[in-house]
């Protein structure tokens, strides 16, 4: 496909794109769309054959220069996305409208907001969307898929993409911490109401008195043995919860080799043995909590490893934001406030398109009501400026 001097093509593996060319399009604060991370997912078999995630990355080139790209997957299910469309798939099935395969613009298994319309510095979000939106529609038509879903978009991207008539805006919510500029974790707690502050201190004291040693590791401090243990804890925790471990052992092995410069590992040791750990990623001024595992339940340890240590690190390093994954209203009392999350969706079937558009209008109103209702129940004092 060619428009003016721009050429659009699809590649079945990120390995077919030069790392430097791809990463030149990536934003300052998003580690997950970097070439190394997407390549680790593919090389490890976490995505690809047999997973229902089939890479079909979209490239837009001007001559021999890559000017825009989209992490794109053809999917045969809706798992691992965290913007839930199971109800739409069920409605389509009842109406005998094929819903799968579909196209998803996303980072697999990663509910974190960031740039998805990767672009050269010469293009803003609107200019990138002007090229990406028709290209996605064309790919959808040629591949015979039902729909395109662009997930966890940056604010300017959802505005730009939904300016095109085929795409509908969706608004859901997650909990995140936006740093108000405090100097320390204790300074943050001073902005909490007394009851919330006491609860956090009680939880941290329980961990401190448990006899476990807590270590925060980053970069070269993280060894292959740490990530091997992280995988064991991750799988064990998934098994206990009855959830599916999307990531393979090979992903953690590759991460030990290639992703350590973006990684933060918080471990809890009983003597020399690691009994729990959280795995996070950081870039620019953002920190993203991602994976957690423990060999059994420990009082308040999840909060310490997944929230409080990350908040401490973010504050001490002057980060602007901490995201701690999908769902979890328990985050509300621990410093994370509800925030709207954006996605954009386009459908080939006119009946499905109209039905979803109507649903999204009502859902957006409900999302805004929920965010407005939840925010006062956060931990912050009314005069805290949050």
Structural classification? alpha+beta
Number of domains: 2
Mean pLDDT equals: 96
**How big a fraction of the residues is strand?**
25-35%
Q: Would you state the CATH class of the largest domain?
A: Alpha Beta
Nearest-angstrom radius of gyration? 21 Å
Number of strands: 16
Q: What characteristic shape results from the CA principal axes?
A: globular
Commentary on this structure:
The structure is a single chain. The protein folds into 2 domains: 2-174 and 339-376, Aminopeptidase; 180-319, Gcn5-related N-acetyltransferase (GNAT) (Aminopeptidase). The strands form 2 sheets. An 11-stranded mixed β-sheet has the order 3-6-7-9-16-10-15-14-13-12-11. A 5-stranded antiparallel β-sheet has the order 1-2-4-5-8, covered by helices on one side. The protein is an alpha+beta fold. The protein has helices spanning 19-23, 35-43, 86-94, 125-143, 155-161, 185-189, 194-208, 224-241, 249-258, 301-316, 350-374; strands spanning 2-3, 6-11, 53-55, 57-62, 65-70, 72-75, 102-105, 118-119, 147-153, 168-178, 213-218, 263-270, 273-283, 286-294, 321-323, 337-347. Helix 4 packs across helix 5 and helix 8 runs antiparallel to helix 9. Helix 10 (301-316) links the parallel strand 14 (286-294) and strand 15. It contains 11 helices and 16 strands.
